[in-house]
Amino acid sequence: SCAGTQGMRADVVETFADQDKILVGLSVYDANHEHGRTDANRWQALTVEHGKVTDIRGFDDREDAARRMR
User: Fold this and answer.
1) What is the dihedral of CA 37, 44, 53, 49, to 10 degrees?
2) CA 22 vs CA 1, 2, 36, 61: distances in Å
3) In angstroms, what CA-CA distances link 9 with 12, 32, 59, 64?
4) How many CB atoms lie within 10 A of CB 45?
């Protein structure tokens, strides 16, 4: 099932574009958590070709995601 239907949410906290790559930083959290919000940082590296996203890779570490931008 989809993370959104289970209460998982994400806020975009960073974006960076360089040529055909886009880095997106996310703060992911469980909206249904009873004991307060605990965020986890995640990053996505997107590749754009001819104005369309053709590849999305997810990373737990910003440095790994940034390396994908090269």
Assistant:
1) 160
2) 27, 24, 31, 15
3) 10, 10, 17, 22
4) 20
- Least Cα distance to 42 among 20, 67, 66, 24 occurs for 24
Q: Which residue has the tokens 């605990």?
A: 38
Tens-place pLDDT, residues 47-58: 999 999 999 999
- How many other CB atoms are there within 10 angstroms of residue 43's CB atom? 22
pTM of the model: 0.81
In this predicted model, which residue has the larger pLDDT, 36 or 15?
A: 15
